[in-house]
């Protein structure tokens, strides 16, 4: 009897680039470990990582809710 299961999806850990199986065997996916997950969280908390977006509107931009 042959095994027709597809091969597991493998991704790189965003922190250390180790191979990680994308599945139940990897509880911290996409990270390889709790350590790498916490390193990434710390980088977000320290604002070393951010998502690009539109610049903030402020009074100096000439924007007002009154207009």
UniProtKB/TrEMBL annotation:
Q: By its UniProt entry, which InterPro entries does this protein fall under?
A: DNA_gyrase_inhibitor_YacG, Znf_NHR/GATA
Q: What is this protein called?
A: DNA gyrase inhibitor YacG
What is the gene name?
yacG
Which residue windows does the record flag with biased composition (Acidic residues)?
58-67
Organism of provenance = Veronia nyctiphanis
An example GO biological process term is: regulation of DNA-templated transcription
Q: Which UniProt keywords apply?
A: Metal-binding, Zinc
Give cofactor(s), names only: Zn(2+)
Which family is this sequence assigned to?
Belongs to the DNA gyrase inhibitor YacG family.
